[in-house]
Design brief:
Distance between the termini: 20 Å
CATH superfamily of the largest domain: Vaccinia Virus protein VP39
Helix content: 10-25%
Number of domains: 2
Strand order of the largest sheet: 1-16-17-15-12-9-10-11
Largest sheet: 8 strands, mixed
Number of helices: 6
CATH class of the largest domain: Alpha Beta
Shape: globular
CATH architecture of the largest domain: 3-Layer(aba) Sandwich
Number of strands: 17
Order of helices and strands: EEEEEEEEHEHEHEHEEEHEHEE
Strand content: 25-35%
Radius of gyration: 19 Å
CATH topology of the largest domain: Rossmann fold
């Protein structure tokens, strides 16, 4: 079995995003020019400043253990959408449903990691990004030189990702945008005999495809990994898996991925992602990751 090396990946390469404070089950963040106050059950500690004194342009409220809620605006509401940047990539942020902002800042550790491997490969690289959301991984990989296929079941997410592509000046990059159920698309790619040098996936705990296909993490993750294995090229570059909102250890996820890739070698790293709070430097954990590196 591949040796599991553990690591805590901290996203600290942003200028347009900051975790300003956290605690008492909430977090205060700056996305570009807009400050938001959102729930976060991982913030078990006391905040630097009492939550009731926080000043934010937008606040998200929801019942305990529920994702869906509503945004409130203590003063003049922020724009429906606004721009921010990471590295050379520009994106649109917005106060979306389910407390989302159109970007997961902690994923920048994977965007840069994959882009570096694409650049160092010095050969054509085909990358598949499934459950790709608003496309930041796709754009980072394409900017580094990869030929990318991006798949997501949400037409809104695909439209948002294409807007980010235009904003970033990457219209000339080879990106295929696929709005489809991830498993159905990947299984068709297997039947077509297509392969990829790099595969990135961020499956939800629960989701539905465009034709009401049901995804349940605990039931479908193993099947997903089997298809990932079938889609890898004879000379793979890397695989990245990120996982949220499941009651699993990163060791469970990593061992499942390692088992599916048994016999291929590579260096595996697994652990947690986190964001560093400004001021006192507390780390707010955000999700689990596992990745395999076959690059030189």
């Amino acid at each position: 079995m591949t040796e599991l090396r553990t690591e805590l990946l901290v996203s600290d390469d942003w200028s347009d995003y900051a975790l300003l404070d956290s605690g008492d089950g909430r977090k205060l963040e700056r996305f570009g020019s807009v400050t938001v106050n959102r729930p976060d059950p991982q913030a078990l500690w006391a905040p630097q400043s009492p939550v009731e004194r926080w000043t934010a342009d937008a606040e998200f409220s929801a019942k305990e253990d529920e994702e869906k809620g509503r945004w409130q605006y203590p003063g003049a509401p922020p724009p429906d959408e606004w721009q921010l940047s990471w590295d050379s990539i520009r994106l649109k942020a917005r106060c979306a449903s389910f407390r989302h902002m159109g970007v997961f800042p902690e994923h920048s550790v994977h965007w840069r990691w994959v882009a570096e491997r694409v650049e160092r490969a010095r050969r054509p690289v085909r990358l598949l990004n499934v459950f790709g959301y608003t496309g930041m991984m796709t754009l980072a990989a394409a900017a580094a030189g990869a030929d990318v296929v991006h798949c997501d079941a949400s037409p809104k997410a695909i439209a948002h990702a294409r807007e980010n592509q235009e904003l970033s000046g990457l219209d000339d990059k080879p990106i295929r945008w696929i709005c489809d159920d991830a498993m159905k698309f990947m299984e068709r790619e297997v039947r077509r005999g297509r392969t990829y040098d790099a595969i990135v996936f961020d499956p939800p705990k629960y989701g539905r495809g465009p034709k009401n296909e049901v995804w349940k993490f605990e039931e479908d993750f193993g099947r997903l990994l089997s298809v990932v294995r079938e889609l890898l090229s004879p000379e793979p570059l890397c695989v990245v898996a990120t996982v949220y909102a499941v009651r699993l250890s990163y060791v469970s996820v990593a061992q499942a991925l390692a088992g599916a890739m048994d016999g291929l070698g590579g260096r595996m790293t697994c652990g947690e992602m986190a964001i560093r709070e400004q001021g006192r430097g507390n780390l707010l954990p955000t999700g689990l990751f596992s990745r395999i590196d076959w690059s030189a």
